[in-house]
């Protein structure tokens, strides 16, 4: 299953992409985890009520919204 812009009325940072994805999976957003490396994506996941994990690939932790956890490819995983 893919949730693409063609099936959405609003994209990130609106929560619709994550809400739609959860619905398609038969889940509630609160039971999903979103992995994002950009501000708009994290804001989308947060607004949808998902658990969020910031991927520190293009931005530093301080540059991204408050996530539930962080993944740094060079140093492994870390909590908030």
How would you explain this protein's 3D organization?
It comes from Vibrio variabilis. This is Phosphatase YfbT. It holds the Pfam family Hydrolase. By secondary structure, the chain is of the alpha/beta class. It has a domain at 33-80. The chain has helices at 16-25, 39-48; strands at 33-36, 51-55, 69-72, 76-79. Strands 1-2-3-4 form a four-stranded mixed sheet, with helices on one face. The chain is globular, with a radius of gyration of 13 Å. The N and C termini lie far apart (30 Å). The model has no long low-confidence stretch (mean pLDDT 90).
- The overall strand count is 4
| H-E string | HEHEEE
Average pLDDT for all residues:
90
Q: If helices are DSSP runs of H or I spanning 4 or more residues, what is the number of helices?
A: 2
Shape: globular
Uncertain residue ranges? none
Helicity, as a percent range? 25-40%
User: What is the SS-derived class?
Assistant: alpha/beta
Give the radius of gyration. Answer: 13 Å
Strand content: 15-25%
Major sheet: 4 strands, mixed
Summary tags:
single chain, 80 residues, alpha/beta, four-stranded mixed beta sheet, 4 strands, globular
Topology (elements, then pairings):
Blueprint: H1 16-25, E1 33-36, H2 39-48, E2 51-55, E3 69-72, E4 76-79
Parallel strand pairs: 1-2, 2-3
Antiparallel strand pairs: 3-4
Outline of the structure:
The chain is built from two helices and four strands; from the N terminus they run αβαβββ.
């Amino acid at each position: 299953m893919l949730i693409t812009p063609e099936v959405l009325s609003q994209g990130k940072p609106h929560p619709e992409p994550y809400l739609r994805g959860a619905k398609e999976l038969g889940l509630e957003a609160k039971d999903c985890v979103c992995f994002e490396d950009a501000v708009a994506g994290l804001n989308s996941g947060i607004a949808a009520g998902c658990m969020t994990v910031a991927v520190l690939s293009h931005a530093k932790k301080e540059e991204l919204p408050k996530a539930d956890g962080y993944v740094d490819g060079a140093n492994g995983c870390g909590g908030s």
